[in-house]
Amino acid sequence: MTDTRKPVFLVIGAGAGIGGSTAARFAAGGYHAVLARRSDEEGLARLVGQIEDAGGSASGTLLNASEDGAIEELVERTERDIGPIEGALYNLGAQIGNRKLHDTPHRTFELGWRLGCYGVFRLAHAMFPAMAERAKTGKHGTLLVTSATSAMRGNAGQHSHAAAMGGRRMLCQTLNAEYGPQGIHVAHVVVDGSVDAPDTLGKLLGDKFDAFKASKGDEGVTDPAAIAETYWHLAQQPRNCWTHEIDIRPWTDNAWWNDNPNPQINSTAANPGFSGSKT
Question: Tell me: the pLDDT tens digits for 77-120?
Fold first, then answer.
């Protein structure tokens, strides 16, 4: 029996940055956007309202992705009550800040893994069987995964985050290897720079956020709407030209060693101010 409902684009981690912008872009492209975030019901309703005001279709739900069964229940409920999930964005971060090894409790390290890696596994585990079945009729599915610099390079103080993001990257590769031939496109997107996101970097920097953006110069901080356009393009790629990993950064951004006046760039001690803040 053909499902005549709108295809769904599910966003886990729908803040007022990459997640919310991507939900809006897919809604504008004809999807029903399901926005899920951990807290701030008022902010969630505002994002849904903005999509609907622009003529799109959207709904929102609060979700604690670290809770057992929460992601699975959301997938089941969405497929049953709203429509088939043809695309999804896993946009949860796992950054706990810079912590020395002895200042990182076991449960804090584990929480980073649960949000950064295990959540992607659980989403795929719950979503891929139905997605793969629909792909047999030519409707390929898409899983987009927002990632970070730490997926490529671990830095001091980033034990939990680097382990979670590195695991996220490898998990995306294994999911692609198994499910790419079954019609599911998995794309790992490394956001290697600062993003103009009030719910993440904005909260981290507080009243210093505007000054930080000004210090980066003209278009020196990535616009989440521009990232959303990249995600839209990835989801529209034909099967004979899928991108499985891509990195994004502002045009003015330098690798950290180019900002370091000390020539001993391979020494951690040579760059004590670098904190791995590009997450």
Answer: 999 999 999 999 999 987 777 788 888 889 988 888 999 999 99
Higher pLDDT residue, 171 or 209? 171
Note the pLDDT tens digit of each residue in 177-196.
999 999 999 999 998 866 76
At 48, phi and psi to the nearest 5? -60, -45
Sign of CA dihedral 152, 127, 199, 18: positive
Domain range for residue 96? 8-270
Residue 277 lies in a domain: no
**The residue type at 171:** L
- pTM for the complete prediction? 0.84
User: Among 248, 71, 23, 225, which Cα is nearest to 151's?
Assistant: 248
Query: What CATH code is carried by the domain that includes residue 228?
Result: 3.40.50.720
**Domain presence at residue 276:** no
Q: Work out how many domains the chain is built from and give that number.
A: 1
Distance CA 269, CA 158 (A): 16
Q: Are 58 and 34 in contact (CB under 8 A)?
A: yes
Q: Copy the structure tokens of residue 125.
A: 């585990």
3-state secondary structure the chain: CCCCCCCEEEEECCCCCHHHHHHHHHHHCCCEEEEEECCCHHHHHHHHHHHHHCCCEEEEEECCCCCCCHHHHHHHHHHHHCCCEEEEEECCCCCCCCCCHHHCCHHHHHHHHHHHHHHHHHHHHHHHHHHHHHHCCCCCEEEEEEEEHHHCCCCCCCHHHHHHHHHHHHHHHHHHHHHHHHCEEEEEEEECCCECCCCCHHHHHHHHHHHHHHHCCCCCCECHHHHHHHHHHHHHCCHHHCCCEEEECCCCCCCHHHHCCCCCCCCHHHCCCCCCCCC
